[in-house]
Amino acid sequence: MTTASVSLPGWISYGVIPLLNLLLALFFSGLVVWWIGEDPFEALKFLVQGALGRGDAIGFTLFYATSFIFTGLSVAVAFHAGLFNIGSEGQAYVGGLGAALVALALDRYVPWYVTMPFAILGAAAFGAAWAFIPAWLQAKRGSHIVITTIMFNFIGAALMVYLLVHVLIVPGKMAPETRTFLPGGQLPKLDWLMALFGLKLGPAPFNVSFLIALVMCFLVWLLIWRTKLGYEMRTLGISPSAAVYAGIPYVRTVIIAMLISGGLAGMMSLNAVMGASARLQVEFVAGAGFVGIAVSLMGRSHPVGIVLAAILFGVLYQGGADLSFEMPNITRDMIVVIQGLVILFAGALEYMLRPALVRLYQPFGRT
Amino acid sequence: MMRKGEPLSLDTASLPAIELVGIDKRFGAVHANKNINLTVAKGSIHGIIGENGAGKSTLMSILYGFYQADQGEIRISGTPVAIRDSQAAITAGIGMVHQHFMLVENFTVLENVMLGAEGGQLLAKGVTGVRRELKRLEQDYGLEVDPDAVIEELPVGNQQRVEILKALYRGAEILILDEPTGVLTPAEADHLFRILQVLRDQGKTIILITHKLREIMAITDTVSVMRRGEMVATRKTAETTVEELAELMVGRRVLLRVEKSEANPGAVLLSVRNLTVKDSRGVTMVDDVSFDVRAGEIVGIAGVAGNGQSELLEAIAGIRKPTSGEIFIEGKPVQGADPSRLRALGLAHIPEDRHHMGLVLKFEEYENSILGYHRDQRYGRGGMLDLEAVRKEAEEKIAKYDIRPPNPRLRTANFSGGNQQKIVVAREIERDPKMLIIGQPTRGVDIGAIEFIHRRIIDTRDAGKAVLLVSVELDEIRSLSDRILVMFAGRVVGEKTAEADEQALGLMMAGIAA
């Protein structure tokens, strides 16, 4: 028996460890800030105020968080089946095509709430389709899903640029983007939700897709822990040999898990394309797919953890933007460094503190 | 304990090779070693015997530096030493031969011996040194192995010799062997014992960990018995008996044979015809095997590990695709069917390896109680999983099989080996299958649970089921089976009744007589 097999109570695994990791990340970020000659505490203040200080700041934070929830769920679902889907970025990008096509087709004829269900299906279908080929290659040919999904990010990006430059572009315009959707193809903002808390949303693009994301959190929880398919995915993810023993079909389970994962990634485009810019633009995903990996890792692939981690990264995105504005010494690149430190400590070094905590906890944990 | 003709000088010879004083080790709530004291004389073979989970492996891991003791002291030739890692153990002259060999399969013997002791950036010097040293070891101890043979092409017995050579090359004066005969044929085991005797006579100290009483009696000078983390007794081998050791191991009188009535075989339920299975490298593992299993009988398959029993079992269970041949369940051809279809036809399977197949160790107990049967509508309609129903049934099985602790929400990894096996046995038998195929039913299971599981297997037979049993424990095969098939090199080389004499079975298992 090593310390890895000693179980810690939930409040340590899911509470204390992530919190300590976050504090460590902040400490080292503080060192970096101090090293370039700024006051770390001042910087932290700007960061928090920039992310949570005003109604519109919170709106932006939650807007980013919404994208991260979708991509975080996407990574988590695949991860439960033992698949490391690095392709949420590309699946979200191609999913945007699905959402945009629905919006372009319907926005003239029906109100947004009629467009929305079709847009969800369109975004999910296109995202899932983009995940299907790597899934099939993994299931049937044994091509490693990490490699193929990375490749498909590039292929997806090239495909989208081609479509936007040559096919979907508005004739006579220079910008590689579709026409602006009419209100029937837009997802309305959630100013009423903010007003409930006495906050003004202002220009922030916080929109209905946040609620869709929360519904998806519930559905993912239901899928993973309350359905037979979820049971099979978890069995396969933890012990492929036990899955073979139990007669769980590998090919089918891998493909279904990746379709769901790709579909969730695709839905991220609802937020960016239909909620914020009201048109399909190049590179609208802007790294949200990769942040999803960190969000899923930090959130322990559980929807509740994912929501919390997504909000944390939303804070870093929005607060970071504000910080680099307030402290010109801290450039956008510095913000990326700080985000990287959070990913490093919260995600990649997840188990660094565990053995020490096991040793600390053990004398008290005996029954 | 001191042997005649001891070649060592008096002052060191009078000191024991190893002294463990008050060794104590806990893993969380598990008290693996309780205040262990052990003295092993130089130039002797000392056996350590005990059930699985008695703490033998933990104790040896402490001696070899895998774990650190919470308390206590290790003395080598009278000098206290701190063994922080295996490197320190090697420096202290301790060598370990693991149950599962630590060899690079596609390296040669010489390369394996040299590994970790290359003696510089360039290999040439190391190679000549190792070659010379191997020659000397061969002469001194009769350990002949071709230094240029590739490991994966050597028989298992020779691979084990390489492990011993590795330890000796690093200057080991004390050799620890962990269950060394598990993978050997009886003839290979005899050869190993002769080597160990030579090593002892040359002054090496040997610690032999095993759960086989016969080996202890055959080769050791002294023996210590462990039970539940404690060292309960140390005896001179010449002054003890198998019965006494068994009683010390378990803490009570042991029923060495299972009570059962005459078999009452009925219709053939499971037939295998000319079954051949090749592994992924194209090596034939099961070679043209045919047999029948009838309702109400237990057919045992005896054989040394690695002679195709595992592959045969997996082919019947639908886990491995047979290369050719046929399998019938009640006359219906089923070869190539997947495990879920076979379950639907009434075939239950207790796999050899509960850690990797029979259970998902990270799951809670109740989740494992439906593995393989989870698509059944009784565990939830449609695609949903009815956790209430699953937990309720899990609780019933826990009560019926006395699984401890009786908590369906506990992680499966936190159950003991015996209780984990009971989870699997309960799941497979309680589905009331027509056929039950079992691999190593009591591997790593404590004796109390062994009796219980054996009883269940016989009850299953008496309920009119067909039972196919694979085990490398000959005693288990003999006490449970109504008929015994012996496998050697992938073939069934003979059939015997349960009364067959052990010598004859042993020879067949070694492929010597049919």
Structure description:
The complex is a heterodimer of chains A (367) and B (514). Chain A is an all-alpha fold. Chain A has a domain at 61-287. Chain A contains 15 helices and no strands. Chain A has helices spanning 10-35, 40-52, 55-80, 88-106, 112-141, 145-167, 191-196, 209-226, 228-238, 240-245, 250-277, 288-298, 303-326, 332-348, 354-365. Chain B has 514 residues and is an alpha/beta fold. Chain B has helices at 10-13, 56-63, 86-91, 109-114, 123-141, 156-169, 186-201, 213-219, 242-250, 309-316, 339-344, 354-358, 365-368, 387-400, 417-429, 447-462, 474-480, 502-509, and strands at residues 18-27, 30-40, 45-50, 71-76, 79-81, 94-97, 174-178, 205-210, 222-227, 230-236, 268-278, 284-294, 297-302, 324-329, 332-333, 347-350, 435-439, 466-470, 483-488, 491-497. In chain B, a hairpin with a 5-residue loop joins strand 11 and strand 12 (284-294). Chain B is globular. The chains are: A mainly alpha (367), B alpha/beta (514). Chain A binds chain B through residues 1, 5-7, 226-232, 234-235, 238-239, 241-242, 244-249, 362, 365-367, and chain B through 27-30, 32, 317-319, 338-343, 349, 351, 353, 356-363, 367, 371-372, 374-375, 379-380, 383-385, 387, 411, 413-414.
Main pleated sheet of chain B: 6 strands, mixed
Q: Identify the strand order in the major beta sheet of chain B.
A: 6-7-8-3-9-10
User: Count of DSSP E strands of chain A?
Assistant: 0
Q: Radius of gyration of chain A in whole Å, from Cα? A: 21 Å
CA-CA gap between termini of chain B: 42 Å
- The H/E string of chain A reads HHHHHHHHHHHHHHH
Helix % of chain B is 25-40%
Mean of the pLDDT scores of chain A?
91
Pfam family, one (chain A): BPD_transp_2
Keywords (chain A): Cell membrane, Membrane, Transmembrane, Transmembrane helix
InterPro entries (chain A): ABC_transp_permease
GO cellular component, one term (chain A): plasma membrane
